[in-house]
Design goal:
This protein is mostly beta strands and 324 residues long. Helices cover 6% and strands 34% of the residues. It has three helices and 20 strands. The longest helix has 9 residues, at 225-233.
């Protein structure tokens, strides 16, 4: 095993979650350090009157207290190279085989959402602008960006599909980005506490998203990080034959009605009618979503060179017309 990849982690990861509903956006910022202690945590979440957020399904907020995020993630997070074929079940990456733990080796957060808007109950991940901005930018939309690491190669290896033009030589410098190896899964969860949620497992939304939008440098490529590993360690590894289904593009919406989706590709959940009502007697519609974030160990960009990179992740969700 290669030691510096066994301890794979990122020095600082800033996560920004946003929820867009009827023109209102929700943001949350929090940072993680290389040590086992959550170094800095700053959080600002606000929502419009139509959406509330919870981390336990009981206490809902328009502004989510930072302490709740802290309690959920804990203080032992060190991102390692892990892998998943379905975005639900995780194991160690190719150089870190074995079981892994949520919020220690990868991030896993569960959110409850509720609304009283009966006409808009489908929730989508929208507006990926990862390739349009740089690390220093602040932008509206979904994005995963990183500062990048200037790294000097110490071996010859093939870093792309073309064996003639994608060769990296010893001493050659380049910028390597941790953001390119990030995966995010969105797993809708059946609300067992809601008698109106009678859906089967096959009716729940679930998908893996690669925000880089670049399948050429995706899962299990023989070039990139693993070509470097073979050159560095003079060892071989077996590329997996089974490849996860990954989405690279997000749903677009009708130009005449921005709440009508043109596909269901990035639908993350549907808010289901409940027996609960607000003080005005309006019915609550509720949904549960698990969001997992990890360094995909089989990604072509999962180099040890990105160990000190800083990454920012912002997720933007939009409440839309319900599917009939």
């Amino acid at each position: 095993m290669i030691k510096f990849l066994r301890k794979f982690n990122l020095s600082i990861i800033s996560l920004v979650f946003s929820v867009a509903i009827l023109g209102t956006v929700t943001y949350a910022w929090f940072s993680f350090a290389t040590s086992n202690v959550l170094d800095n945590l700053s959080l600002n979440i606000t929502t419009g009157d139509h959406l509330e957020i919870s981390l336990d399904g009981e206490n809902y907020y328009k502004k989510l207290p930072a302490s709740l995020i802290w309690d959920t993630i804990g203080t032992e997070l060190i991102l390692k190279d892990v892998t998943s074929l379905d975005g639900k079940n995780f194991s160690g990456g190719p150089l870190n085989a074995g079981p892994v733990r949520a919020n220690q080796d990868y991030i896993s957060l569960r959110f409850w959402f509720r609304t009283t808007d009966a006409g808009k109950r489908d929730v989508y991940l929208v507006d990926n602008v990862s390739n349009d901005i740089v690390y220093e930018d602040v932008a509206d939309g979904t994005y995963v960006v990183s500062r990048g690491i200037n790294w000097r190669a110490d071996n010859t290896f093939q870093n792309g599909p073309d064996p003639l033009t994608d060769i990296v030589r010893p001493g050659q410098r380049g910028i390597y980005y941790g953001a390119e190896a990030i995966r995010i899964s969105f797993v809708e969860v059946k609300d067992e506490a809601n008698p109106f949620d009678r859906r089967g497992e096959d009716e729940l939304s679930s998908f893996i998203f690669d925000p880089s939008g670049n399948p050429e440098r995706g899962y299990g490529k023989p070039y990139g990080a693993f070509a470097y590993f073979r050159a560095k360690r003079k060892e071989n590894i077996t590329i997996p034959e089974v490849v996860p289904e990954v989405r690279y593009e997000l749903t677009e919406f009708s130009p005449t009605n921005h709440y009508v989706p043109l596909s269901y590709d990035s639908k993350v959940m549907t808010l289901i009618e409940t027996v609960d009502k607000n003080d005005a007697g309006k019915t609550y519609y509720r949904g549960i979503l698990t969001v997992n974030i990890w360094l995909e160990g089989w990604d072509a960009d999962c180099f040890a060179s990105i160990i000190r990179d800083s990454i920012k992740i912002q997720l933007k969700f939009k409440l839309t017309m319900s599917k009939k």
